[in-house]
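can u do me a favor
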């Protein structure tokens, strides 16, 4: 079992930046792929980014490539999502996830709100 807690969300103007953090409990953190998803009001949850257990392989949704970067620090059991050049369409609840697959979806955090104003 893995428990995930996100932090770092907030309100930012378009063009600004935020860094989200997700801290995991459990000794098996380093064996899981970690990912980020988001859900905008009235829309389905969508994949944003993922990083494999080693930190070497990363994947991104086309909508965030070149603006968002995900990384992990296994010593701190934490995964990060650095978001630059934010746009109003990036607004939503951002969820951290852990799992065994390339797109992790076995365990979920409670979510953190990101609001980008125009």
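np, heres the sequence
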């Amino acid at each position: 079992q893995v428990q995930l807690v996100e932090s770092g969300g907030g309100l930012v103007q378009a063009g600004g930046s935020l860094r989200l953090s997700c801290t995991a409990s459990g000794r098996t953190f380093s064996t899981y792929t970690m990912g980020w998803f988001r859900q905008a009001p009235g829309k389905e949850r969508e994949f944003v980014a993922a990083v494999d257990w080693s930190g070497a392989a990363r994947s991104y949704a086309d909508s965030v490539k070149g603006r968002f970067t995900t990384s992990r620090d296994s010593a701190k059991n934490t995964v990060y999502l650095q978001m630059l050049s934010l746009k109003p369409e990036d607004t939503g609840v951002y969820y951290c996830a852990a799992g065994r697959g390339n797109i992790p979806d076995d365990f979920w955090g409670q979510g953190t709100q990101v609001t980008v104003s125009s």
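The radius of gyration is 13 Å. hope that helps!!
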